[in-house]
Amino acid sequence: METNIKHFYAGGNTARGFISMFDSSLQGLDTVFILKGGPGSGKSTIIRSIGNNLAERGYEIWFVHCPSDNGSLDGVMIPRLKAGIVKGTAPYVLEPKLPGVVEKHVDLGEAWDGPSLSHQKNEIERLHREIASAYEQAYAQMEEALRIHDDWEAIYKAHIDFASADQLTEELIERIFGDVDLGKQAVLRHRFLGAATPQGAVDFIPNLTHDVAKRFFIKGRPGSGKSTMLRKIAAAAEKRGVDLEIYHCGFDPNSLDMVILRELGVAIFDSTAPHEHFPERETDEIVDMYKRCIQPGTDEAYAQEIALLRERYSNKMKEATQSLAHAKKWHDLLENIYVSAMDFRVVDRLRDQIAEELDAIAANA
Fold first, then answer.
1. What are the residues whose beta carbons fall under 8 Å from the beta carbon of 15, sequence distance 6 or more?
2. Which of 32, 115, 232, 330 is least surrounded by Cβ atoms within 10 Å, i.e. has the fewest?
């Protein structure tokens, strides 16, 4: 496993539309290169090439993955250099304008053959319409899936012992923090645990937690209080000045799926489908919220209703995944048009210029 490269999502195709948390990932950076250019203009290739090169030289690297294309990257952060490279095109259209951050816009449109693209204007416009329609359909399908999921959650919410849930949360807070108080303002970084992609649900939990000493795997059912527990742990960390990586649900961004406290060597996360993982180390520990907090026999009493809701939810999410795959198909055709009109010698030159500027930052660090 890569030891100095971490992977996460900063944007997501969710039941509430496309949601970006990219600005949160730009905290602490002094220099941000914002890549402009159409599909297939080499943005992801530049990000990957420079990120891998710096990783080989020993730098810690954070790769930001694209939720709409499993093979593409949306950005890279190099914490030691306080620098990053990000896409500045839809759906992000990044214009961070953060205080103290030097923004360097890199226009890959310099490499386009304009007349070649203008001859295909009608086809480009058609493909953009197809892509927009596919995403609109996917979001509507995920919104319907969320309504079904809410009905599923309601069964367990009606049978939860809130006192037991509160007690379990307080026990974990005491175990994680004890009398820790770092006496500083906590830095909060909001990201996505995983993403709904054209190939289905994807997460990077093993990568993000491989160097974390203590991992809590939260097991339970929809509505059993997992997200509420994570919010309370996050609030306790912030109160004590402990820096936080807060990972939101890639399906419902209003829900939390993981909190990592790297200063304490602790990660606690929702380890149920579609991001189900199991303990692998002696220090890994399961937190079973169904066993501790839900009235015994709930699964059995509502087995038929739960099975129906699970099936409806699964079918609707499969439809959404298919719609995302359609969007990618149209996007690939759009990329092919731009690729055929690109002079990649210009792209290589721009990539080398960015790499040289990062080397200069490193030399002065």
1. 139, 142, 143, 145, 146, 251, 252
2. 115
